[in-house]
Amino acid sequence: MRTRRTAGVIVELLAIIATVLGLATSFGFAALQFTSGLSSFTGITSNAAVWLIVIAVLGGLTMVSAFLGVNKGMKRVSEANSILSIALMVGVLVFGPTIFILSTMTQSFGSFISNFVPMSFWTEAQASAEALPSWQDAWNGPWTVFIWCWVIAFSPFVAGFIARISRGRSIREFVLGVTIVPSLIVMVWVAILGGAAVYYDDASKGAISADVAEDTSTGLFSMIQGVPVVGGILLIIATVLVATYYVTSLDSGTYALSEFVTAPMKSGPWFRVVLVASIGTVAVVLLTVGGTSVVDTVQTGTIIGAFPFTFVLLLMFMNLVRRLRGRNARTEQEEIAINYASHLPEDDHVDKNGIPLDDDGQK
């Protein structure tokens, strides 16, 4: 098989490394933010021991979800995510500064549309005229590069998982459902929660900004505490959301990762459980090694894992363009045969994983 040749194995290895470190990074940040959420309404102190307990609990929930499968495990958690996310947004919008949020949303959308192209090419060139004291002082410093690498680290398993559940869709439908619609939803989400944060930060004379400067994981909960009437309920919802969002991310990532590792065979539920435990172990290492600079350590882990895969993505882009330009009537027929497959005579000579059988029905 072409994918099992040396180049294919290297690509799969880079994808596995990027995925493991990307998921472990998210696991580390989830532990930090979930602990901050607990502290906001329970008074529990955020420390390394609590982080490890949180990782163990969230990892255990993910193991159960991965073992049960997509329809029984991940589907239920994803449905809970959707309900709680809508409840959080509606709660902040209705009980928070509604007029300010709607005004900010409208203005932000207009600003985004008008500045999208120039800001996409903005590098703050004037800052490069002289040496900077450190990378931290650069406009595209550690957080910007980290976000780029975090997205790249998530791309192998997210793309694989979405492609699997989008089988039979056209490219137009895929782009619309995977890129445009989710982006608009995220923009509304950020406009509501971010708009409320700006309002309450100004009203409190920079209290939220001060909390974020001290610990970035407390920003969401610091804002929610300012929402009247339902602030306490929203704190609980937001904390649960941090957990369930990551459980679904780790669950889908584990499915895709198991396909990378066991291809062309199908992975079993216990193998996915082992993968979850392995990713949790990497997250524990990142958190414990970091010490007082735990965030920097977690960021570095993602950058190390994602940087090599950047070159693979560039090759994939070029290959996609090449394949689309070489698409013809025969290719379209093959796509229809794959996406809307029916039982063929040759299917009797392979197992469920597509591996050929001998005349006696043995592998």
From TrEMBL:
It comes from the Bacteria. It is a multi-pass membrane protein. Signal peptide: none annotated. The chain crosses the membrane at residues 7-29, 49-70, 82-102, 143-162, 174-200, 220-248, 269-289, 301-321. The keyword Coiled coil does not apply. Belongs to the BCCT transporter (TC 2.A.15) family. It is found in: Cell membrane. Keywords: Cell membrane, Membrane, Transmembrane, Transmembrane helix, Transport. This is Uncharacterized protein. InterPro entries: BCCT_transptr.
